[in-house]
Structure formats: C-alpha cells, structure tokens
TrEMBL record:
Domain HTH cro/C1-type stretches: 29-84
Superkingdom: Bacteria
SUPFAM superfamilies assigned to the protein according to its UniProt record, in alphabetical order: lambda repressor-like DNA-binding domains (SSF47413)
SMART domains membership: HTH_XRE
Species whose genome carries this gene: Actinocatenispora rupis
TM ranges: none
GO molecular function: DNA binding
This protein's name: Transcriptional regulator
Length: 288
C-alpha cells in the first residue's frame, strides 16, 4: 500500500479537526454541536483560507497546498512538531528545516559503534524499524536476532506478531501506540518505499491492534523515554532509551538502553554476562 498523499491528507485534516474543541483554539461555543470538534468554517477562519478550500482539501479533490497554507493549517489545528512534518510530507512539501533522507551507504561504521557501546544494550535501526545491527547485550535482553530470518528482524513486527513478545512489555499499549505513531511519520516521509508500504500492509492484516491504532492517525517521533520490560529469566527490568541519528544518514537510528534503577542494573549486568558468554561459545564453536 503506497501512500495516497491526497487521501491521507484529507483524512488527517479531518481527524485533527474533529479532535479539537472551540475552547482549545479560543473560539466561543455558540450552539450545540451534532458532530465533535471544530467546524470547517472555524478551521477556515483560523487558517485564513476559504471554507470551500478546506472542504476540497478534506475531500481529496486534487489540491496541493502551498507551504504558507500548510503552516497556517498547522497553526490552526494546533499540530505538534511531528504532526506538522507529517502534514508537509503528505502534501509533498517537505519543509526546509528537515534534512532530506538519503539511502544509507554508511551503516557499517555505525554498526561497529553498536558493538563498541557494550555493555550498554544497543541496536541500529532504519526508518522501517528493521534491525540492522545489535550487540550481545541487546540480543540477551530482547531476543537472539541472529537466529531469526532477516525478514523478521523488525522491532515493530516482533512486538506485534511474535508470540514471545506479547508479555515482554509491561506497558504494552503505550509502547505499541508510540511505535505505530512513529512508523506513521516514517511512512509519510517515504511515500515511494515499497518495502515500508508492504510492512504496513502486513501489520494491518496480521494485527487488529496495529490496524486499530493505525486508523487513529497519531504521529509522534520518539527520541527518548522509558520502557518497563519483563525478561523471561530475570523478571522485571525498566530501561531508559535514547535514539541518536547520524548527521550524514538521518534514516538510521542508533538505539541505546540504560537501566532506569538499581534492580534493573543488576538484571542488565546478569543479562550481559550471559550474552557475552553465549557469544564467546559461538565463536569457539566456529573456530574463531
């Protein structure tokens, strides 16, 4: 499913309009409303465009709004920075303050950095959440990625469709919701990425949870946060994560985990010892 820019732009504008109340944008509530959110007339007034223009945008009638109009709509609808970028991507009007992604030829240097970050669990993802590299500690914490087929080394696919991950996140609803919102931003920013479109289609077909959250059209890029996990051997572990993007390759994401508290640090230390021992055993087995 490639990105239908006009259709998705229409749906996104409607969804955001319906989530706002007049009070949130400083407008009086004059009459009882039969539908939630702002009226098109109110959005048009706030954005300084005609009502007919808003109607045609919401009906996907072939308009390509200018950057000025998009900025006005973003302000009128109180869009977050991530939602603003999403709006511009859908309209094929990427703002100048966002770097233009390029196909990566530099994954290997960052992959070496992943290994150098031990004993901190770390992994390298692309914009599709494909897992390109990982260290022993991350494999020990999550799953032994080396035994998975390459096509299944995708963090969102694992979270949603791999049975062993269904109890892994103690706050599953939030983690999945944030992951879907992050993927939606990448989807709009890469409208010609057929592999990404196929991933979205597979997840929509295979996970009712994903399909429901995808239709909510939440957009958010997650650069840092906290995740409470449940390791199958060491029990509850809470990690804080940081996501770093190389300047020369903004489509790559270096994800680094740290323990959020002392008990989690003890668990991560034990996981790291086990993972390093497993790695060393494999090397001996192949005569390295």
């Amino acid at each position: 499913m490639s990105v239908d820019g006009a259709g998705e732009l229409a749906a996104f504008l409607r969804a955001r309009r319906e989530r706002l109340t007049p009070a949130e944008v400083g407008l009086p509530v004059r009459t009882r409303r039969r539908t939630p959110g702002l009226r098109r007339e109110e959005v048009a007034e706030l954005a300084g465009v005609s009502v007919d223009y808003v109607v045609r945008l919401e009906q996907a009638r072939g308009l390509r709004p200018s950057t000025d109009v998009l900025e006005a709509l973003a302000r009128a609808l109180r869009l977050s920075p991530d939602e603003r970028l999403y709006l511009f991507d859908l309209a094929r009007q990427r703002p100048a303050d966002r770097p233009v992604p390029v196909e990566s030829a530099a994954a290997e240097p960052v992959s070496r950095l992943v290994r150098d970050l031990s004993p901190l669990p770390a992994m390298l993802l692309n914009h599709r959440f494909d897992i390109l590299a990982w260290n022993a500690e991350m494999a020990g914490l999550m799953v032994d990625f080396a035994v998975l087929p390459p096509v299944r080394r995708n963090s969102l696919w694992l979270c949603l469709l791999a049975p062993e991950f269904h109890g892994f996140y103690r706050d599953r609803e939030r983690v999945i919701r944030e992951g879907v919102a992050d993927l939606r931003a990448a989807w709009a920013g890469h409208p010609d990425d057929t592999a990404l479109a196929e991933l979205v289609a597979e997840l929509r077909a295979g996970s009712a949870e994903f399909a429901r959250l995808w239709e909510e059209r939440d957009v958010r890029v997650n650069g840092r946060g906290r995740k409470p996990l449940r390791h199958p051997r060491y029990g509850p572990v809470t990690i804080e994560f940081e996501v770093l993007c190389p300047l020369q390759d903004p489509d790559l994401r270096l994800v680094i985990y740290r323990a959020a508290d002392e008990p989690s640090q003890v668990a991560l230390d034990a996981i790291a010892r086990d993972a390093v021992a497993l790695d060393a055993g494999r090397l001996r087995a192949v005569g390295v």
